Amino acid sequence: MSTHERANLAPRGAAARGAVVVEVAGQAGATLRADPSAGAIRSVGVIVPTYREALNIPLMIERVGAVRRALRGGGVTLSLVFMDDNSRDGSVEAVARAAASEGAGGSVGGGADGSGWARIVVRTTQRGLSPAVIDGLRSCDADAMIVMDADLSHPPEKIPEMIAALEAGAEFVIGSRYTPGGTTAGDWGLFRRLNSSVATLIARPLTRAKDPMAGYFGLRRETFERADALSPIGYKIGLELLVKCRVRRLAEVPIHFADRVHGQSKLSLKEQVRYLRHVRRLLTYKHPNLAALAQFGLVGASGMAVNMGTVLAAERLGAGTQWALRWGIGVSILSNFALNRRFTFGHARGGSVVTQLVGFVLTCLVGAVIQYVVTARALSWLAEGSPTPLAVPFGVAAGMAFNFLISRYVVFARGGSRV
Ligand code: GDD
Ligand code: MN
To answer: Using a 6 Å cutoff on CB, does residue 240 contact ligand 1?
Structure first.
């Protein structure tokens, strides 16, 4: 262990505390006095989701064990729980063995006896990383919880610094790759780096965190308990908690993100598609009107492409220009309807399709009239001799505003409430 790492083991030392920057939403870098409502942290639960990590488990127990001993000097107790999805790769035995040699008195399989500091819970229902983490958080009764990967890409030696950040007033702390001082093991290819930054960018409207994707994070029990209904889809349980716990005071502790020691990542392409759905849900949760408007706009833009494509196809198939234009309008209204019903106003999917379709088509027709009237009006407001196309955006804006408001509050107002 380097001297640097050793220094980090100092429990809640002045140095660690001084390094902590707590960010208040909207005020980057503001330092904060400790939240008076937040008491001292006397116990910490480390929650580690695992799937086939038998080789990493002994290393984890050893390194977390060193942290535990250091914290104990400062009067803080630490417990470690692996939330395993029935890996059957010797993980249970690995905990028992390592725990015995670490003096952990490993309690295994459901871990009801509570005697040891390290244990493994074998889950047999509802597989998945996020559900495993949520289960772990729910069943933990410590003052603060830390969640981390089992593959040693997250340095356990940073735990004391993360706890110091929570004690300094943060509600949520991230072991961050992208905050100043944070680093990532060298051999990430261009694709993986690009992938990670695009994913981070997409989460921008949800949080100011520099590393919102992180699987290494900590929070106080009170913060977790005020979470709104959690939807455990996908890998990004940290992001879900940041949003659903309405975190305002956030700290990011720089870490070196190491390459996984044994085994391989379970993050697949499927997970990345799921991530997009997850972000869409969180956006809808956090900014319902803005999210609907943005999706409505995107659907409108897609309608333009559908319209042009249909005109092209109709002409190729021998339709006259007038009929091709009519087909273009008709087909794009239908595709807009389908997409808005599925995405923009997904909560209304339970309602009657026929009623909604009739309502949507009528709205579009009235919207077109409004667009025409406003465009004509705008032309008369504009300075004499202005080019006619300049009037078009006014009409489009008025027509779209009408379409959006009537769609949202009338056509798709009802029908279930799934987001
Ligand atoms: N219980 C359970 N069930 N655990 C799982 C499952 C599952 O279905 N899938 C993965 N895990 C565990 C792994 O054993 C590991 O401890 C941790 O969850 C993360 O899985 P990895 O497979 O190592 O993920 P990764 O390295 O690709 O992704 C990590 O880094 C990302 C940022 O680059 C994770 O920390 C992500 O959350 C993070 O976004
Ligand atoms: Mn990993």
So the answer is: no
Q: Evaluate: CB of 132 within 6 angstroms of ligand 1.
A: yes
- Average pLDDT for residues 134-161, to the nearest whole number? 97
Decide whether any atom of ligand 1 lies within 6 Å of the 85 Cβ.
Answer: yes
Residue of 46, 47, 48, 50 to mutate, ligand 1, most atoms within 8 A of C-beta: 50
**pLDDT at site 161:** 97
Q: Does residue 12 register a pLDDT over 50?
A: no
CATH number of 3-286: 3.90.550.10
User: By alpha-carbon position, which residue is closest to atom 35 of ligand 1?
Assistant: 215
Task: Decide: 252 in ligand 1 pocket, CB within 6 A.
Answer: no
Confidence of residue 269 (pLDDT cuts 50, 70, 90): confident
Cα(104) to ligand 2 centroid in Å equals: 25
* Mean pLDDT value across the chain: 86
Q: Which atom of ligand 1 is nearest to the CA of 267?
A: 27
- Does the Cβ of 260 fall within 6 Å of ligand 1? yes
Q: What is the number of alpha carbons within 13 Å of residue 8 lying toward its C-beta? A: 24
Residue 2 has pLDDT above 60, yes or no: no
Ligand whose nearest atom lies closest to the CA of 265? 1
Record the pTM.
0.79
Establish whether residue 262 lines the binding site of ligand 1, counting it when its CB lies within 6 angstroms of any ligand atom. no
* Domain coordinates in residue numbering, the chain: 3-286, 300-411
* Per-residue pLDDT band at 364 (split at 50, 70, 90): very high
